User: Fold these one by one.
Assistant:
Number 1:
Amino acid sequence: MKDLPARFRTLFPERCPVIAMIHVAALPGTPAYGGQMEAVIAQAISEAELYRDHGVDGIIIENMHDAPYLNRVVGHEISTAMAVIARAVRAVWTGPLGLQILAGANQAALAAALVAGADFIRAEGFVFGHVADEGWIGSDAGRLLRYRKQIGAEHVQIFTDIKKKHSAHATTADVDLGETARAAEFFRSDALIVTGVATGSPARPEDGQAVRLASHLPVLIGSGINPVILEAYFPVCDGVIVGSWMKADDDWRNPPEARRIQTMVDAVRRLR
């Protein structure tokens, strides 16, 4: 086990933390919004309590149901809603709490995390550029870290996806994962996230290893993890972000199931 930065170890002292996803229901103004914000909040609280009771190590709140996503800039209704939801979750969840606002709305996520008392954000498009299904997304590391300084949120860590899913990386095909990892570390990322090509698609273990060897930062596997394949990733990562597999029928659209959560948590504990 490599020597991880103190900032990360303070949040996650256990080996290979399990970080669960709360995919909040569609938010105000988005095509699928149901008109009942209190129901959205209640669902998020209920899922946080379920994750808490079955021993996950961290939670990320994400606006996955807001599709189709905007590119980088979201309305105040989204960032405000995410802050309110995260604050409500914080009342029942005392562990590490993260936020992600799609797509690549990293400044909005950082502001929401600050006011909600969250510990980190999951950021897309931190270094280099790529074509996502929302269009071209350029690097925002410089603007994001200056914004973090400006609002006094330097304690909020930034976990960054590199060569992120649902994207084409042809423009940086000559920049491999290792070099991308080194760039993110140089630009002051707090942790690196390696994914497969889409939500629920496994990352390759060799990609995790390449990123692990290229930087001193924690490496998280951010998609496709399940208890069957977990052992192959355990030597090459410092944590797993699990969404789809802990939901009913292995589908991120469904609510989480206690049986699946406990199976994942137990599988990690056996390997620690």
Number 2:
Amino acid sequence: MSDSTPQQSASNQAAERKPVVFSGVQPSGTLTLGTMIGALNNWVYLQDTYDSFFCVVDMHAITVRQKPADLRKATLDCAAIFLAAGVDPQKSVVFVQSHVPAHAELAWVLNSFTGYGEAGRMTQFKEKCAQHEDNVNVGLFTYPILMAADILLYQTQLVPVGDDQKQHLELCRDIAQRFNNAYSPTFRIPDPYIPKTGGRIMSLQDPTKKMSKSDPNQGATIFLTDTDEQIRNKIKRAVTDSGSDIRYDESRPGIANLVELLHIASGESIAAIEQRFESKGYGEFKSAVADAMVDFVAPLRNRFVAIREDVPELTRILKDGAEKADRVARRTLRTVYRKVGFWSADQ
């Protein structure tokens, strides 16, 4: 029988509670090698240390016009890739954003704590407007506020973000602090998690730009569902630079990108790669990169196919994840509603 008091037990439980990490990926197109290296690998690493909430952010996806059937398929594809990459639903909460209504509900409240000028300064909003001139909608404008709601609902301490999302996280921090100052401490102020390596995988056809699933040139991007032959062909046709020596040099982004890919896929150090291919040509080097990349992607692709084919089990995992996420999110939302003055019959 324990000698601890209820107060001590509660204190011990709080001390043992893991910190929280939240991240999400849009189900818009097939996920890429960059997503695997820059996001999913980090999720798998973090899930052993953090209470992890990983989300298919389908509500964000509709800021750009979607075909309904394609979006439904892409949502399941995206979740299956999470699991194939090693995200474990026994360790992490895996769910679909629209299945937890608190995301939209909190976003509406946070709209009233966000300045028009703050939202208008978001670089990604300006870029999206330029890309989709025929559909500049309010959702594009308030996208970062929904992202803030995603994060703050779970009292998140750590958010894996790429360089293109750091500005959004700063806005999230500002909104949370503003709300806390207006009422009382309600939200944790989240910090970014930016991996030291592998955060930006560059295009195979324009290595000065990030590899993107929306690149119109399909040869520029390695998709996680590409066949072995497709991967080999893309590496074979990848842009290199003038010169013939194989070494990592940021002033030669084409060859540097391929060296980085071989390093990530094989685990071989940059120095060892440079030494191994000293005095060897691009053809032999690209062949080695292609072999390593096939070995890296193929196991994940095969796991994805098996997971995606079992729709009932995938559905069960996502439903279970949504129920878990909803319980946590509702606690935060109830607190927010009470603090802003919304009446409740339970009060």
